[in-house]
Design goal:
Helix content is 22%, strand content 29%. It contains five helices and eleven strands, in the order αβααβαβββββββββα. Strands 1-2-11-10-9 form a five-stranded mixed beta sheet. A four-stranded mixed beta sheet has the order 4-3-5-8. It has a two-stranded antiparallel ribbon with strand order 6-7. A hairpin with a 1-residue loop joins β9 and β10. The longest helix is centred in the last third of the chain and has 13 residues.
Length: 174
Amino acid sequence: ALTGDAERILSADYVLLPGVGDASYAMRQLQHRSFDRLIPRLKQPVLGICVGLQLMCRTSEEGHVACMNIFQTDVRRFPATDPGHKVPHVGWNQIGSLQTSLFDGVTDGAFVYYVHSYYAECCDDTAATTDYILPFSAALARDNFYATQFHPEKSGRVGMQILQNFLSCKSFRP
């Protein structure tokens, strides 16, 4: 259920933090509801998608905003350096170096769908990578927190498998 109620979020079995749009605007909305302090304290599985991933990082260059600091990495804008690699990065690309049970049944090199101009740098929390202009975190994982820069809901069978894996158990271990 879609909710802005803190008690419903705290009692939910799973939490999805989706996102489309501007990270600085989204962080202001979370701060307005004090969700920026609530979300990092959640104990149930949490999945951030796209901007949801970015909000779970330390900072974002998009609006130069401090984020929730769940994942120990920063979000940067892709450099527009090569005419063959346009920004935003839109379309299908491969994921590799799959690190958690979130990717059970997903093969290294599977294709997923992206729409983004900003990326999370690779770090100790990186659970999957993609190379577009440079290598970046396609997914992040720490404790009960998971996030994908790509859109699993737009990624066909691979995305469905990832979402089923997320919903299949109460806790994942990287």
